[in-house]
Design goal:
132 residues, 3 helices, alpha+beta, single chain
Length: 132
């Protein structure tokens, strides 16, 4: 069955990551706080591998929306514990050598990403900054 609260996850097959360990801290509001430390019964280093395992019914996994959007839309995966789930935004960084001239195609790509990440409802991540 489906867990009704985060505490019930301990009685289910949880899939997780081998590294980094912080990926096994799920953003769930519970009696333990706002991060739920999972004890995966099966670990992999790849989110895609964990997604495929979940599609085969091997367990419950916490993955990014971009990895699961199409599967949820098609009904192949379902979100559980939605009322306990916290929204988490991870930063996106464009890293390049500061003492070199950026190729125009790189500058255009960075500007494109910055515009996309702003979204219609405001910024989805920290403001775009240049680090000198």
């Amino acid at each position: 069955g489906e867990p009704a609260c985060p505490e019930e996850l301990d009685r289910h097959r949880v899939l997780g990551f081998t590294q980094p360990a912080r990926l096994n801290q799920w953003p769930l509001r519970s009696s333990r706080g706002e991060l739920w430390a999972t004890r995966p019964c099966l670990k992999a280093s790849s989110g895609e591998t964990l997604r495929r395992l979940a599609l085969q019914g091997e367990g419950i996994v916490c993955l990014s929306d971009f990895q699961t959007h199409e599967d949820r839309k098609a009904g192949r995966l379902v979100q559980i514990l939605a009322e306990h789930t916290l929204t988490v935004w991870n930063p996106v960084h464009a890293v390049y050598y500061r003492h070199t001239t950026l190729a125009p195609r790189i500058r255009v790509f960075i500007d494109f990403l910055a515009a996309k990440l702003q979204g219609p409802e405001g910024p989805l991540s920290a403001p775009v900054e240049s680090i000198e």
